Amino acid sequence: MSEFAILEGFVSVRAALKAGSRPIDAILVRRDKWDRGIAWLEHAARDAGIPFERVDSAEIDAIAQGNTHGGVIARVGPRAFLALDDLAAGEAAPFVAMLDGVEDPFNFGQAVRALYAAGAHGLVVRPRNWLSAAGIVARASAGASEWMPTAVAETALEAAEHFRARGLTVACTAQQGAISIYEADLSGPLFLVIGGERRGITRSFLDQADLLLEIPYGRAFDQSLGTTAATAALAFEVMRQRSRV
């Protein structure tokens, strides 16, 4: 593998290994680290033909970007992506989300974590996305970025056209002309676009969306929610509505 990224921590490495989301060049574990999770990791890695190496802590510290690795890292290759046609294929009421313009890898990872926990069937990203920052995103998402079926689209408009043709309602948040997420019907096939903190959703996309949503507040407050909080509120309202169907 000529180029590789580093996944840090047992949760991230286990997710990549079990999900088969990317090639794994090698797994490195601190020499004195022993527990049931590590035993499973060693067994699974060797079953998959992946080198499992016991090394000194100094070697791991020299490779890792942070200090939250817990003595476990993996050298990995690029994230594997699905085609748009294969994302949520076979689901009666697909829930697919797109994170567009999120400028911070921690926020991106936290948003993916919320979407995955809420049961989203798939994620769409642009070609230039934070999945290249594999270690940060995997940690912030608690491994969800490795588990989440993910596809790439050049633009949100391209993805919206694709999913609308498949019968999904195209939705996004807006400040004007929107309805409360608690009044909207989010139980059917849904393609939800979530914009970043600075750029948000473009006017061209708002003009062609099928459904504009707003997240009601409990008091007067003239500031928008951050991407992570907004994503969680939206995703779990979708989950709540679908649990009642």
Could you walk me through the main structural features you see in this protein, from its secondary elements to its overall organization?
This protein is of the alpha/beta class. The protein has 2 domains: 72 residues, 2-Layer Sandwich (60s Ribosomal Protein L30, Chain: A), CATH 3.30.1330.30; 160 residues, 3-Layer(aba) Sandwich (Alpha/beta knot). Strands 7-6-5-10-8-11-9 form a 7-stranded parallel β-sheet. A 4-stranded mixed β-sheet has the order 1-4-2-3. Strand 5, helix 4 and strand 6 form a beta-alpha-beta unit. Helix 4 packs across helix 5. It is elongated and about 60 Å long. The chain starts with a strand and ends with a helix.
Average pLDDT over all residues: 92
Write down the domain tally: 2
| The CATH H-level homologous superfamily of the largest domain | SPOUT methyltransferase, trefoil knot domain
Radius of gyration: 19 Å
Give the H and E element order: EHEHEHEEHEHHEHEEEHEH
| Stretches with pLDDT under 50, minimum 5 residues | none
CATH architecture of the largest domain: 3-Layer(aba) Sandwich
Largest sheet: 7 strands, parallel
Shape: elongated
At the fold tier of CATH, the topology name of the largest domain is Alpha/beta knot
List keywords for this structure.
alpha/beta, 60s Ribosomal Protein L30, Chain: A, Alpha/beta knot, seven-stranded parallel β-sheet, 9 helices, elongated
